[in-house]
Amino acid sequence: VRARSNVLFLGRSRHFGDVLVLEPLTRQLRAERPGIRIVWLTERAYAEVPAMFPSVDAVIAVSCESALALLQRFWGRKILVFHFDGWKCIRCFAAAKVKAVDPSITLENYYAEKRTLLDANALVAGIVPTIRQVTLRLPDQTRSEVRAMLLPPRYMVIHALSTQSYREWPR
To answer: Rounded to two decimals, what is the model's pTM?
Structure first.
């Protein structure tokens, strides 16, 4: 499979928050590379998220992290993968062999070094984030449902479950 020169593939295969927080990078990359087509690679369950990113032109479902690693080997610099080195694929049960640009950032140390989720995911792909605010194209039905909740102008959403049990909120 050959990647076209005017296409940049971005790969983050799973985890809602990890995919969502990377939206500012799509706008940053679009500004830095005018005329580029941005295609997001993610698992089917998460495809709705990057589909709402204003700067993403297309979303392609991949089976797992190992598929991203394989595409990375073929496409080289045409794909930016936002996974830590040694990331374990939950489908193949093996290290996905994704090559991080900065392998010093790991799942174990990115919080300890006071990095945000955006910083850690961007830096493993060799990008220093300059835009931080997430922007989404929400479907009209979603907008209506959110308005019907009568939320205050500022609010926070907290989730209690994580893929790493040590990061979960106490129950």
So the answer is: 0.82
